[in-house]
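Schema walkthrough. Field components (list of strings):
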Amino acid sequence: MAQIVFDQVTKRYGDVRAVDDLSLAVGDGELLVLLGPSGCGKTTALRMVAGLEVVDEGTVAIGDRVVNDVEPRDRDVAMVFQSYALYPHLTVAKNLEFPLRQRGVPKEERERRAVDVARTLGLEPFLGRKPGQLSGGQRQRVALGRAIVRSPKAFLMDEPLSNLDAALRVQTRADIVALQQRLGTTTIYVTHDQVEAMTMGHRIAVMDHGRLQQVAAPQELYDRPGNSFVAAFLGSPGMNLIGGRVAVEAEGGTAIRTAAGDVLLQGAQASVASHHEQPVVLGVRPEHLRISPGGALEGTVLLVELLGAETQVICELADHSRVVVRQQADQARPRLGEPVRIAVEPAAVHLFTEDGSRLEEKTAA
Amino acid sequence: MASVVSRRSQRLREAVLGYLLILPALAVFGVFVFYPFARNFKLALYQTPPFPGLPSHYVGLHQVGQVLTSSNFLQSLLTTIFFVVLVVPAGLLLGLFLAVAAHRHLRGIAVYRIIFSSTVVSSVAVAALVFGTLMNPVVGFLPWLGINPHPPILENTTWALPAIAVMAVWQFLGLSFIIMSAGLSSLPEEVLEAARVDGASSWTTFWRVTVPLLSPTLFFGVVVATIYAFQTFGQIDILIGSQNAAYEHVNVLIYNVYTTLQINGDPGRAAVLSIALFLLTLTLTLVQMRFLERRVSYAS
Ligand SMILES: Nc1ncnc2c1ncn2[C@@H]1O[C@H](COP(=O)(O)OP(=O)(O)O)[C@@H](O)[C@H]1O
Ligand SMILES: [Mg+2]
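Field assembly_structure (string):
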């Protein structure tokens, strides 16, 4: 067991900075989720911990040891690949025993531990089969078993659920969380799926274009996104972002003037008055918007999506930007093409600068 | 109705056009491959008369049995097997070794790949000249190194065949390298990486993961190399020939077909020998196809 520390790590492929100046500490026993869109450098970061990619700049440490120059086999970490990467010519039992065998564990102990792990994961009936004779879910569990069988310092998992169907994914998600909790092994879990990230991670590190955007506990990340990328990436759908300018109103209040109307600010947010006339981005989650005759924003209904318990109303604003309004299924649904007014819950407004960083509200003491 | 008819006539037209297009190729194959192939079986049933000019007469399978039990054939078969044993493992292992060495993401590695595969395009005649010079008892490289048996290598009943084998291995190396390289690049990269993370050394990874995964390629290589060894003719003819003291010891089946026909003037016996060689090759190919079929389950 050990912590894993990235210190100003950069990895380049030609001109592409796959991972750009990444500094991140994963605590001992923590399950940290690396989250980001495809191509943002998650796999590359993980592979540098495994030793499968050379670190161009900075250091990666496992426990107290900088491992930049340590061979993968001497790092004592286990990896679960997206493709599972099972040994196709070996049976499930031999696949599970493989890491133990490399460490010179005697035959009887090897077999005993392989069977133990197989039992934990419900793989006992398949010990004699080869990977080619297993379903996707079973293969996934073999890959997991091969990782846990030797009690490594850390687990590195690269989108291990992405090849499973939805139902199995939800179940396996819970299984992995339970397993990690029981073993208490430091884990870096890579995914592009924000629901996975929210449900599994002790903390989530969001990446984009090789750069770390924010690290925080799931709820904090959702409630206080550090920039507009994180705001829009988390949540399904993500936060609505509407461009506008800070305007100090005649009555003394502060508002954000958008093409679709003025949104009055309250409380701490109003402290941006000093930014008068500056362009800003107003962020508000779909659940904090409401279709209401007195609403501040003006739009047209573009699409109504029924999701069972909820309804998503997608509206187009005057500047052709779109916002999503989430409402309960029993609320009255607007018709397509109908002009509507949209109310913004003032306390739930986030403000970002034009380049995306969060406008720090001065705590109105 | 009309459209059905016209569709049918269109399909017919397409078929006719198709056959017309392959006709030239078919003609060439017919004249130079199929006809001689069939004719060869007929030849095997006729005994060549002891003196030229007399008519050959039909003897049925009698001649086949006679040839296949003759000491000349058995000796030749043994020589062929010995030659295969010398060429195939060496050719494949060296090819695999070079392929593994070149299978890295290093700057300039492409140059090595080209060099390693270059023997594919070298001609037998030129290669024979080079090796003949290397082994020449007076000006050669091997004698200069102190390797200079008596009689000289290419006339030496012990060394002539291994010398030809060395040359065959060298010439096969390019193809071997290409086959092994293709096999290596088709391996699932992540499985090899998994082995490294799981604690395997390069050595262990190679023997416990790479080689088993490569086994279809290796087997394919064995068949190709064996067929290549079966076909090694030019080197023997150029460097040794039928007048050489070592001739009996390098008289592999394919060379035997040639000497039986051209030197002994016996098309009947030569036909039997060539059919034997054909069946040997065919069997090998069928075994390989069966083997590959069984291995397909690996892929998924
Ligand atoms: N071996 C490689 N060679 C060149 N570019 C690569 C290589 N691996 C990854 N990249 C690039 O690095 C970036 C990050 O890739 P990756 O870490 O695989 O992203 P993710 O796992 O988040 O989808 C991408 O732009 C990708 O194209
Ligand atoms: Mg990836």
